[in-house]
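Q: I have 289 residues here and want to know how they pack in 3D. Can you give me a structure?
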Amino acid sequence: MAPSGSLRGKKIRKVVVCLRRGKPGAMGVAMVLKSIFRQANVRAKWVHEGGLARTVRKGVDVVIIGGGDGTMLHAAQATMGSKIPLLGINLGSLGFLTSIRAGEITSVLPRILRGEYGVSERAVLSAKLEGGKSSWCALNEVSLAPGAGHLMVKIGVRVGGEFLTEYHADGLLVASPTGSTAYSLSAGGPLVSPKAQVMILTPVCAHAMAQRPLVVGEREGVELSLGSGNGPAVIRLDGSRVGQLGGGKVLRVTVSQPIVRLMHPMGSGFYGLAREKLGWSGTSAGIAR
């Protein structure tokens, strides 16, 4: 996975803005953004979520997203491979992918537009069914869940070609370090730095206490197949259903070449964000550096 950076960037002159419709406070945020753009002489194109993929072209410096992590995941899918960074404004609740709170816009955004920002490069997971022609990409996780009429799923796992175990669970996640703060975290998985070159296997409500989350190397690759007597399992990428895994088939999950670039204020990083979002005690004030 590509390393994260925190270097001073170029001044921002052209942006695409996408605010989640129906989010409380979105209209007020839009008015503040327009005022800041006028003062900074920044050209802005405003689009709805469905228009992101058509709008993001060469010459755009950043895509500014207003919403929660779900909106950011949609934007990541729409812009994947473009190398244009995403800057998230949190209009939701937790929001690990959004680096600016709505109340910070007037103090933080002008500095970012002047070039005072860092960019974190996040690797993407690729999932492909054995024998299939197409593959899918996910920023957070690839998940398998029981199909209709089933309460659990048996999933055989191979890592680097070696058989690991057969998980009996309500589902199984293969998460990226970015996804370690999402569904995987809720299911009991570990927090992982986005600089780590790993994937995380996290069972959802495993039916055996010994079956725990596992961190594996990103280059090893993960192969998933169904246990005997198991009905088809639902395949989801970042929460969106894309297909199903049937008996006798293999779903391969690897790290993909496209990356997603997340912009953040200068001096802000993963550990500070984790401390803030999870309410950990302590402050960095007065701590020697």
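Q: Anything worth noting?
A: Helices lie at 26-40, 52-55, 69-79, 105-113, 183-186, 270-278. The chain has six helices and 18 strands.
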